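Structure ticket #2291
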Amino acid sequence: MKKASSSKDTLRNEYKRSDFPGGFQRGKYAARAATASNIVVLESEIATAFPTSAAVNQALRTILEAAEQVTIHPESDAPTEHPPAASRRTGNR
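Resolution: structure written out below.
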């Protein structure tokens, strides 16, 4: 009769290359990870101003809403203001 295997952790502190006969492939999943995520690294002074992803998203939404309301015409370089997107959709101006 076999003894029950111990539930002791089997990870080692160090491994040798010979422990992996198939070898290593650096960056094997890098391309897949890059296409499946939207990770952006913020500079330290920006990160202190926006401590959470929700704060960053809200700031970016505000900028996008403001950009939708202003259009610069190439021939005059003068900005033209537009009504907010909500009033354009409903027709209220």
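Closing remark: The first strand starts at residue 70 and ends at 72.
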